[in-house]
Amino acid sequence: MIVEIGAFSLVLALALSLVQAVLSATARVTRSRVLAGAGEGAALAAFAGLILAFAALMYAFVTSDFSVANVAANSHSDKPLLYRIAGTWGSHEGSMLLWCLALTGCGAAVAGLGRGLPDGLKALTLAVQGVLGVVFLAYTVLASNPFARLDAPPIEGRSLNPLLQDPALAFHPPMLYLGYVGLSVVFSFAVAALIEGRVDAAWARWVRPWTLAAWSALTVGITLGAFWAYYELGWGGWWFWDPVENASFMPWLVATALLHSAIVTEKRGALAGWTVFLALAAFTFSMLGAFLVRSGVLTSVHAFAVDPTRGTLLLIILGVTAGAAFALFAWRAPALSPGGVFAPVSRESALVLNNILLAAATATVLLGTLYPLIREAATGEAISVGPPFFNLTFTPLMAALAILLPAGPLLAWKRGDARGVAQRLWVAVLIAFACGLAAFALVSPRKAFASAGIAVGAWLVVGAFVELAERARAFRGPMTETWRRLSGLPRGAWGMTLAHLGLGVFVLGACFETGWKLEAAEAIPIGGRLDVGAYQLVLDQVRGVEGPNYDAERGYLRATKADALVCEPRPERRFYPTGGQTTSEVAICTRGVSHLYVVLGERRPGADGPVWLVRAYWNPWALLIFIGPAIMALGGLVSLSDRRLRMAVGAKEARA
Amino acid sequence: MRRVLAILAAMFCLAAASDPAERLADPSQEARARAIFREVRCLVCQNESIDDSNSELAADLRRLVRDEVKAGMSDEEVRDHLTGRYGEFVLLKPAFSWGNAALWGAPFLVVGLGLLLLVRGFRSRGAEAELSQDEAERLARLSDDEPT
Description:
The complex is a heterodimer of chains A (about 650) and B (about 150).
Chain A: H1 2-30, H2 33-62, H3 69-74, H4 81-86, H5 92-113, H6 119-143, H7 167-196, H8 201-232, H9 243-268, H10 272-295, H11 308-332, H12 347-379, H13 387-404, H14 418-442, H15 448-472, H16 479-488, H17 491-516, E1 518-524, E2 529-532, E3 535-546, E4 551-561, E5 564-567, E6 572-576, E7 581-585, E8 587-591, E9 594-606, E10 609-619, H18 622-640, H19 647-655
Helix pairs in contact in A: 1-2, 1-6, 2-5, 2-6, 5-6, 5-7, 6-7, 6-11, 7-8, 7-10, 8-9, 8-18, 9-10, 9-12, 10-11, 12-13, 14-15, 15-16, 15-17, 17-18
Chain B: H1 2-10, H2 27-37, H3 56-70, H4 75-86, H5 101-131, H6 133-144
Helix pairs in contact in B: 2-3
């Protein structure tokens, strides 16, 4: 019964989205406040409908109702509660429902929170958001219904893939989807602004909080995914340039570019066309990601679409939605005002360079992901584009971006003073060089590229502090004055400093880990020893343990450094009888910001009794790889709390 | 999800390239072989190098590469041999060829195009700024309302 209520709510939400689109659009045409209010009501109601539908599906998962096809295919009554809940969005159908939940949630947020928006812009935004809701809800209802029942329900479900039964991965899709779909609001705002024919500072200010929120959620989502890959897959790697990862990374890159170009539009009224273009592109890349991941077009190059109907439908949705938006852009953008002028050395120029490099990076990732398809379609030759390509193209672009970055915030708007910026940054240059040289000289083996990476990371970190010191006029007056200025800084400034600092922390971690990671693997008996870097691992015993829905072998190891006990890793090798799958549960000892990473492999027959394959990695500074993006996301949230970004404030200023 | 399944299939045996049973005796040769592994695709896997994969084919390819490295072949010769046998698909790093010119050239093209547009913008705007008094007044107004 509850499942039927869910299915009914879903269809109701589809109808309500249609009502939202029609009423809001009519409200704009007739300038009717009553109709606009009704459209807003429909948006809120559609969201309520989806909450009901989602709760119903979650209920089916929690109670293991295997008469629902989706539950039977993706859940199991043995599974712990958290993963039964997470199973709700673990499948194609469930994740589309989550997508729609986020989409209608965004529409409801615009309706509920956008009180200060001009009536016309708000109604149009809600109309576009309603159209998006109709498209995706229709897809969900017609092609991927999560509530479909089975004629003959099985006694037991087929379970969620055990690799996905992990806390980080339970929260990874919701954050990612919040980010993907959060960008839909930006898209709707852009379409609305193009129809209105007005893209100005006020518009940029309204778009900013949505971009910030979506960007922060995407940052957290991608980082959780990387963290999961790091400790669950057992390779010690965290980024594989896999098409699925690229699909989530492209919207992030575009959203990052948009955050920066929107500042120029907000402060100087320039780049309006480009900002609108990015606003459209960001959600287009989200939809492209949804298509790439779901259609199976990329992971398996030779078979188009796992489910051809779904893949084709998603491609049509993508083509029509993005096509219509960009056609509108091509028609209306030339009429947008070019905005303020600026000199070659200015903050505007720095932000434009930022955008050029981020656009090139996005193009690189896009082409790297799609090129095998293009080449095969064009010439019939199959090629592969793997990590070596991205390391040679993406990395230099990001290095250039990182080298330019600290100068950007120190430049004045319109006309900057290059010499002044150089004077303020020479300390940072010296420290960065010293760090790079120290890494080159002290860390063995000697690695020039990794050391250069350390220098770049240090440059970003010190650059962020220099920028903060500049704002506070530190070292140029009494401490109390510095403190007064620091505490008076707007949250947006703090957010920017944190985000840039986080990038530096990430670069430090990524370069150190990639450059100086150590690997060791041996087949050792009980009592056997494995050395990795400065650490000795001894395998004391291996015991069988029983989990809630798996059997495991657990290794009891001791890690010592210079004969002092450091930690006792307990890696496991788990067997899930339901799916017949084996996974490894990595043991990670955190030493400062570095990781000692231990994996228990298969048991083999040895000369005197069994031996176990034990792999261990020394991943120096690995923790920074995940702390960095966390700081960046925190920066986004701090910036989001800036009172200047609240919609009502922007509206008041726009009216004044 | 598919990638996860692929990796999952690989996890039945957790050794891959680091398996001590496969290793070459000479550490420098082993290091060279490992470097080559990372640029060779496991042909039957979704998107993995033979360094990561545990499929039988990956193990065979690793044996092949290790044997050739041991026999004193250069990295280039090993790669040529692989592409001769399996085509360009086997290399994770696409060749610098005309067929891949668009791929390798795209980053430079976008950066170049962006810089060109930026410079052209400065030129045309610079001329306007010199001529128009409105522009100068507007600039002054803009700089007044901007708190630094």
